[in-house]
Amino acid sequence: MHMYLSLAMTISAGIGFGYGLYRFFRDESALYVRMIIFSVGCAMFGRLFETLQYLVNGELGNGFHVGMLGIIGSFLFLFSANFGQMDSVVDDGSPVFRKTRLISLAAPLVIIAIWCLIAFTKGLNKTTIPLGIETLFIAQASYFHLKHLIIKDVEYGLIKAIRNYNLFALIYALLCMLEMLVESFNLPVFCIVIVYVLQCIVLILFVPVLERGVKKWTT
Amino acid sequence: MDNLTYIAFIALTVSLALMLPLMEKKTRRVMIFMIVGIFACLFISEINGILLKTFNKNIYYVTTTITPVTEEIIKMLPILYCAIVITDDRRTLMANSFAVGVGFALLENVVILTQNVESVTIFWALVRGFGSGLVHGICTVMVGLGVSYVKKRRKLFYCGTFALLSVAIIYHATYNLLVQSKFQYVGILLPILTYIPLLFLTVFKKSKTSKTEKQ
Questions:
Q1: Helix or strand or coil: residue A151?
Q2: Using the beta-carbon criterion (under 8 Å), do B167 and A45 form an inter-chain contact?
């Protein structure tokens, strides 16, 4: 079952990535958008590795596997796009945004709390430690997604236009954590399927939602 | 036979190094990076040997999980040095990155050839040439793309390079996983199918740029 779920994720991410390449790589587009498309591509590569691992070996094995780098890389691209490109535009570091910065910490805290739940229950071992590392990357990206979701807009409506995308990215981060949770606690099959299906939907819609927002930048 | 890797390294690098003074500046730089790639392979072969012992000689696990990580990190170092000290021009970095990757694959192929000299065939040579040669080249180019931001945008460089390094590691591991499985033909096709569109895009972009420059 895991192989098929992983395959579904690969295909979904592939659709998202392919759509992104088709829509944004024909002409010069913003690096911010390109990085988000790369993020979906990275998720696709990671899931592809997992699918192939299931296909060849029948299991992923305990502990670290290279597929985890797909999630890490994916969230690094998202983080890099927000931290390296967008954040300096929307937040000048003034005290006006202090409250927003503090509230935004809620997202990484929730994400870290989910991992802590796993770690306290299962203990620190070769499975939970790599998941913890993965969690750190998801947490740092989620901070900026929540921040850009709630921050007061800059004059040109730059951030307002991509709020839906940030919401989607935040949901994606949460779903990745829920995947960890359902896998770690061996929850009923339908829970696993729901989490995977939701991730598939998010991965397919990621780029189109971003595109709708980005279009508003130029109109 | 223990020093076989070193013998191959000396045989390859000495002849290539002797050619350096006769070359033009641009070509020489690419050749130097190719020699660096060969050296990187020599260096990593020692590290991989230690890792193999650590993981109880589980070649399959080490080649699909550990060596893609170590190899990509080692191949990134000369590119990082190039971007910081020599130039961060993207085109130059791409060429140098590919040279490091190809140099790396060169020594790797020679070592594997000498280890399996009785069983290798022309088909094996084609597989290694198109397969691992391209995989190492493509992976290093991916990382080189991120490294090119080292001076321009620091924030992008730190996260972007690590993200691209992750993609390169996954790509490398996927290739290693496939070539050791019953789907080895898919593994061989993977780098070729990646290289052709990349080549197409690069040539298309180059011709577009030169057209614009002419106008």
A1: coil
A2: yes
Q: Which residue has the tokens 């190492």?
A: B136
Which stretch of DSSP H or E encloses residue A82? none
Burial class of residue B44 in the structure, from the number of CB atoms within 10 Å of its CB (0-12 exposed, 13-18 middle, 19+ buried): buried
User: With an 8 Å Cβ cutoff, are A56 and B171 in contact?
Assistant: no
Q: How far is Cα A219 from Cα A212, in angstroms, rounded to an integer? A: 11
Exposure of A135 in the CB half-sphere (CA atoms within 13 A): 24
The stretch B88-115 carries a mean pLDDT of 87
Q: Is the distance from CB of A141 to CB of A82 less than 8 angstroms?
A: yes
Q: What is the pLDDT of residues B51-64, one digit of tens each?
A: 888 887 778 888 88
**Partners of residue A49 in chain B, C-beta under 8 Å:** 170, 173-174, 177
What single letter denotes the amino acid at residue A17?
F
Interface list for chain B against chain A, based on CB atoms closer than 8 Å: 64-65, 68-69, 153, 155-156, 158-160, 162-167, 169-171, 173-174, 177-178, 181-183
* Domain extent listing, chain B: 4-204
Query: Structure tokens of A124?
Result: 């620190």
- For A182, the domain range is 2-218
A217 pLDDT above the threshold of 80: no
Contact B163 A66 (CB under 8 A): no
Q: Do A66 and B170 touch (CB under 8 A)?
A: yes
Number of domains in chain A: 1
In the three-class reduction of DSSP (H, G, I as helix; E, B as strand; rest coil), residue B23 is classed as coil
A63-99 pLDDT per residue, tens: 788 888 999 989 988 898 888 777 877 777 778 788 8
Tell if the CB–CB gap between A45 and B171 is shorter than 8 Å. yes
Residue with tokens 């392919």: A18
Here the tokens at position B162 are 């690590």
How does pLDDT run across A97-125, given as a tens digit for each residue?
888 889 989 999 999 999 999 998 888 88
Number of H helices, E strands in chain B: 9, 0
ipTM of the complex in this document: 0.86
